Amino acid sequence: MLEKLNQAMEYIEGRLDRRIEMAEPARIAMTSEYHFRRMFSALAGMPLSEYVRRRRLTLAGAEVLGGERTLLEVAVRYGYSSGEAFARAFRAMHGVGPGEARRTGAVLRSQPRMSFRLVVEGGSSMEYRIVAKDEFRVVGRKARVPLVHEGVNPAVAEFIRGIGKETVARIAALSDQRPEGIVQVSDGLAAGRAEGTELDYYHAVVTSAQELPGDLDVLVVPAGAWAVFENAGPFPEALQYLWRDVFTQWFPSNPYRSRPGPEILSVRPSPEAGETAAQLWIPVEPTTA
To answer: Which DSSP string do the residues of 32-73 spell out, in sequence order?
Structure first.
């Protein structure tokens, strides 16, 4: 998987001065565009679109200092429709406008080329199981919240505090299948999973019930396969590390890829003081499908 991913990165590098159709590097990596973007984000720590932007501005910076092309020619070469748009992007990355950089020979910032390799850390194994589920419903209360990679998400915490106990009890009573009880569901995540991008968050249950209270939010989830991972530790750090390990270690080593669908988290108190036990459900499909 990593070899194919690096071949896809070579393709991107060779097309920084022209339009890149992301379906092609995904094809080279032998996966879906959806999974390719998510894998890159997990491995690189930034969305693929941000990496491409920074690489283009790195090459553009070298050409600005070189002086062989006009600033407008450089702008167009790297995908900007106007000198003004190019100048804004250039300043955002380099801290100086392209005209001033050319006049003064300013020191510019650089985004290095990325390649990936597998680093084996420790000897622990990651426990998982694959579960096939028929169509089900996520039922509860929904809010639009920003994505937070580390630490407690204040928007989620405030949203949960605002749900009355009676409503939570009514929601919990609808649970009739795994994962059981109140769960945290994230849907509509941007493929690049950039910090601050918005998603739909459900404080809800998983149910097969057809007749549901009209005041609750409902998400219908099609049938499919799910990879289920478990761990225990301080919340939310242990969960955030689990998600990182799933995409940087498990997916590159197993014949599955992520597919569109909600991610489901079940959190319960752990016997260890100050810790929680978590189950993370990720929608997957075989890479051979």
So the answer is: -HHHHHHHHHHHHSS-HHHHHHHHHHHHHHHHHHH-SS-HHH
The model's pLDDT over 56-77, given as tens digits with 9 standing for 90+, comes to: 999 999 999 988 899 999 999 9
Are 183 and 204 in contact, with CB atoms under 8 Å apart?
yes
Question: Distance between CA atoms of 58 and 52, rounded to whole angstroms?
Answer: 10
- Burial class of 150 by CB neighbour count within 10 A (0 to 12, 13 to 18, 19+): exposed
- Crossing angle for the helix pair 33-44 and 2-13, nearest 10 degrees? 90
Whole-structure pTM over 0.70, yes or no?
no
Residues in the chain: 289
CA distances from 222 to 205, 285, 286 (A): 16, 13, 16
Class of residue 80 by CB neighbours under 10 A (exposed 0-12, middle 13-18, buried 19+) = buried
**CA distance readout (Å), 163 to 23, 55, 128, 187, 265:** 41, 45, 32, 19, 18
- Amino acid identity of residue 174, one-letter, is L
